[in-house]
Amino acid sequence: MPSIYTLNLTALLALNGALFYARQQSQPSSPKPTPSKDGLQSLLTSPLTPFLSVYTLIMASDWLQGPYLYPLYTKTHSLPPHLIPPLFTTGFLSGAISGSFIGSLADTHGRKSACLSFCLIYALSCLLTTASSSLPVLFLGRMLGGLGTSLLFTVFESFLVSDFKNRGLEGRLGEMFGVMSTANSVVAIASGVVGEGIVGWAGTEKAPFWLAVVMLLVAGGVIWCSWEENYGQPARAEKDDNKKKDDKIRKTGSSLLKTLCSPTVLALGLSTTVFEGSMYLFVFFWAPALQSLSSAGTALPYGVIFAAFMASTLASSLIFSRITSRLSFSSLLLALLGVSSACFFLASSTTASSQFTFWVFCLFEACVGMYFPTMGYLKGKLIGDEVRSQVYGFLRIPLNVFVVVALLITGRMEGERAFVEVFRVCSGLLLVAAGGFWGLVVKRGGDV
Q: Most C-beta atoms within 10 A of its C-beta, which of 143, 153, 180, 390?
């Protein structure tokens, strides 16, 4: 007889099927062409389709590794448990440090080049992670992994936003981010299935990392052949004399500082740090939370539960465009912060049933599915293109520091107290972020 989690997953997949069918039915069969749609149609050959193909490949390479990094360290490399937290912390520290300079390099030397660098760096990280059980090699792999993650969540989005603006498609950014969120959810579900299958076939947890390397190399080839370079605004006048170059550097530095200190960006930074930091902590603690609440003594079907979470993310991405047609992006982000705070508060209960907590987790994952396209649109709208990658990079510094500090603190906690305290703190911080965003953006008339 199927487990309750298998039935839950089946129900969520059926819901996704119904939502997809409803969305297809709601679209007109032969829409009249409009200038913006014609512009989007012209992008189907260059570079929208290449971008989406690259995006699915790089996200698949990331999803493939995630579930198998811990067992790779503990089973394949036979590392003692006390060495695992330092390895993960190294990755987050690397991401925090690199966030201070990779954005500037991308804006100056080109975002296409930065995307190519990501493919090479992340592929090398995968190879080092699987090549040897030597601690220096494994720590170097984590350092490169942290650098790659910073590039992944900085330069690709910067490239996309700049390219859309150059083509006069800025108004369709929200739609594009919705498509990316849906694609990411589908890729996550498929990666979980493929990863489990390839591990069973190859008999080693190294196999998903090897497949990720292949995907990254293919993505790099597509980028090299079909993408056009774009820069931050100051990099486009390479032939200016030295005085003009110095003026541009000062202007860029002033613009960066002004942007980072603006109330809007401060609110976005606080929201990014707290929401995504809580999301990373959720990844660490959802399994022990469900296990501690489970009445059965047997291990939970973690693969099925993960697929259910991703199905929840997919469901929310399928209704994203319908919601944003009725609600502004700023108001939606405010709602997501509030609902997520409630989810973490409810999940901190030690008396709730495992099924209740499971569905609370699914609701949070639905918030995640809407958060990324919402935040992507808001950053694209509210941050200037000339310093975009730099600002995106700096916004990831407090996020990585938040996660490192949280992991160092929770590493000293024992038993069920760890997830209870972590979830309660996340709930409170999400409320603070919601209040900050309301006061600094929505209340000031910055509703976008």
A: 390
> Tens digits of per-residue pLDDT, 13-50?
999 999 888 877 776 554 444 444 444 444 444 446 78
The per-residue pLDDT for range 354-382, each reduced to its tens digit, is 899 999 999 999 999 999 999 988 988 88
Domain region containing 432: 4-14+47-230+242-442
Q: Is residue 38 part of a domain?
A: no
Lowest mean pLDDT among 106-110, 216-220, 326-330, 383-387: 383-387
Q: What percent of the chain has pLDDT over 90?
A: 33
Residue 221 forms part of a structural domain: yes
Window from 32-46, 189-203, 242-256, 356-370 with minimum mean pLDDT: 32-46
Here the CATH number for the domain that contains residue 298 is 1.20.1250.20
> Is residue 420 in some structural domain?
yes
Expressed in angstroms, the distance from the first to the final Cα of the chain is: 49
In a domain, 24, yes or no: no
